[in-house]
Design goal:
By secondary structure, the chain is α/β, with parallel strands linked by helices. The protein is built from 15 helices and 8 strands.
Length: 382
């Protein structure tokens, strides 16, 4: 008999226009006359993507306050400010609208609404998250992080150090996915958020915590991404491709919720902290620079990934992904400017820092101290 646990999934609704039904969804989850705090990416406001969501909730009879004081790497101070708004309003529902930053923030706020403790009290699991009684809805406007389906958030200290927050209370009640919201995403961000989703599924399928019952989620994420990413980049108005990428992100999120990530995210988080390299690009660079070393930890699993990507096995993964990048007008090699910002010695130190070490330990192959140094050098030299 095989013992396993598959974490609870949030409810998922995907359709064109789904975001404009947010008011109905709030009523279903909370009831009439809810008190909602909408946390949104400020870049969405001039694009006209915030008001329709607010309107759907006010039309349904709910009171809504909005919070958009966010940066691309959300800070603990922003989380605490949004939490104060939730407390003042006595909110019973938090809605996140945006990419990973807005969704990660909204998830932590929904949990902190139950306590007077600041965000910093829960860094890296140093205190158990309180049971969440405030409803939580996530509406993604990128297709990459999968935050709409995970029980994790990444929030930065004021100095820039990124910390993980995790636990079942962070998992949304509903992921409300509307492919129309990502049609305007520029090619660069479409590609690298899509690569983030793909790397999630690849790492879930191959790391030391993978197991057969979770593999279908990771494999679905890989297939959706490799099938739809190129068209999503080169045909930005293609709703079928955008829908496929939303599925890739959601399934990647579900998969890592059961297994976690691995060395590509270990290095990717360090690259983000050190040099501000966008997350999807950082994990893509890290995956490819460490691939030859990592494959030896679980070659059969990587062979399966290579086949799902359309190749013969593990040896084709790099070729397939570089070819995909070329066809999308992007590069999966570190630029000269990025290399100037990253020193291999500092990168190696960040790889074993408390905020990142768990992902290195989840990697299919054990990393000795000399391996960590080598992986850092390869990443910078790639």
């Amino acid at each position: 008999m095989t013992n396993f646990t598959l974490a609870k999934h949030p409810a998922m609704r995907l359709s064109v226009g789904a975001s404009t039904t947010c008011g109905e969804r709030v009523t279903e989850i909370v009831g009439a006359s809810a008190r909602v705090v909408l946390i949104f990416d400020p870049a969405l406001k001039p694009l006209g993507l915030v008001d329709p969501v607010v309107g759907s909730m006010t039309d349904a009879g709910h009171a809504v306050e909005t919070f958009g004081d966010l940066t691309s790497d959300p800070k603990e101070s922003s989380v605490d400010a949004a939490t104060r708004l939730a407390h003042e309003m006595e909110s019973n529902c938090i809605v996140g609208l945006g990419g990973g930053s807005a969704l990660d923030t909204s998830k932590v706020v929904a949990v902190l609404a139950q306590t007077s403790e600041p965000c910093a009290a829960y860094r890296l699991g140093q205190a158990q998250l309180p049971f969440r009684t405030t409803a939580l809805i996530s509406i993604p406007t990128t297709a990459g992080t999968g935050s709409e389906t995970t029980g994790t958030s990444i929030i930065s200290e004021e100095g820039g150090t990124k910390n993980w927050f995790w636990g079942p209370p962070l998992k949304p009640d509903l992921a409300l996915m509307d492919p129309r919201l990502i049609v305007g995403l520029p090619a660069y961000w479409t590609f690298f958020t899509g690569m983030d989703a793909l790397v999630h599924s690849i790492e879930s399928r191959t790391n030391r915590y993978r197991y057969a019952e979770n593999d279908p989620l990771a494999e679905r994420g890989i297939v959706e991404a490799i099938t739809h990413l190129e068209r999503a980049v080169n045909e930005p108005g293609n709703l079928e491709a955008r829908t496929g990428m939303m599925l890739a992100a959601a399934y990647g999120g579900l998969a890592i919720g059961n297994t976690g990530c691995a060395v590509a995210h270990n290095i990717g988080h360090a690259l983000g902290s050190i040099a501000g390299i966008p997350h999807g690009r950082a994990v893509s660079l890290a995956l490819l620079s460490t691939l030859e070393w990592t494959i030896e930890g679980n070659r059969p699993a990587f062979d399966r990934v290579g086949q799902l990507l359309g190749g013969q096995g593990a040896g084709d993964i790099g070729t397939v992904l570089h070819g995909l990048a070329d066809r999308c007008g992007q590069s999966l090699k570190m630029s000269a400017e990025e290399k100037e910002l990253v020193e291999a010695q500092r990168l190696a130190a960040d790889m074993v820092a408390p905020a990142n070490i768990s992902m290195l330990q989840a990697t299919a192959r054990d990393a000795l101290p000399e391996d960590v140094d080598a992986l850092a050098r390869w990443t910078v030299a790639a």
